[in-house]
Amino acid sequence: MKKLIVIAGPTASGKTMLSVDLAKQFDCPIISADSRQFYKEMTIGTAKPSYEEMNGVTHYFINSHSIKKPLTAGQFENEAIELITELFKTHDQLILVGGSGMFIDAIVFGTDKIPHSKEVRKKWNGIFEKQGLPYLQHQLSTKDPEYYAQVDTKNPVRLIRALEVIELTNQKYSDLRQNKVQRGFTTHYFVIEHPRELLYDRINMRVDEMISNGLIDEVKGLITYKDTQPLNTVGYKEVFEYLEGNISLERATELIKKNTRNYAKRQLTWFKRVQNAKWIKFSTITSMINVIKTEVHTPE
To answer: Which residues pair with 186 in a beta bridge?
Structure first.
């Protein structure tokens, strides 16, 4: 059976370098499941891999969409599964890499079985406009504490989606998301693991590099779209605050580091609930690849 190799992990964990070297050994392309790297307008603040870092390996779902038309997890599932089906005609392995657990899950487990209602969603959007984010957070933490512990609690779109489903079904969103679809391939799920302090050092260093590489100018060029959902994210919303004169550049940088570390915690919480995921201690690329290749080639 064809094999999908998932390389997951928190931000700044070294996924890009590992996945590129692994793709070269398997002679296969990479599919990105980083929900922020889809957007062609966002580069520096999403740590999008450069042409040099891609090192000749074909990448899909990087610069594939626009912030003007945000991509949902369900849409990503439909587009990516169609692509994966086509790519498996000429490859025995494919690599899915990213830190967005919801989008990885869309491919591995599926999203289509959960109901939608425009009316209920409109109702919760109205509540959000009147009562704000803390009210949504309180409602979800009460109704579904398991999902609340995993979700980006500062993302109203995801909170509203969960509350919509809970109202429609009288079931926890976290329970409904356990229903798995049958795929025509085997998945091998790997998560890169770092000691906390090392990961935080890598995050802080990356943020400093983003500032040096021109993040402020990138965000300045996106002010027209500041209220779009993709830009309501760490690394961008803090710079908007700086550009509007609400905080200093030093404070904005501190907040980006702090919020990125908190985001990494939520990513790790998400990955820890994935059954059968194999955690790989960060070391040399060669050592990590050997672990992956041993696991992938082990008879099932």
So the answer is: 3
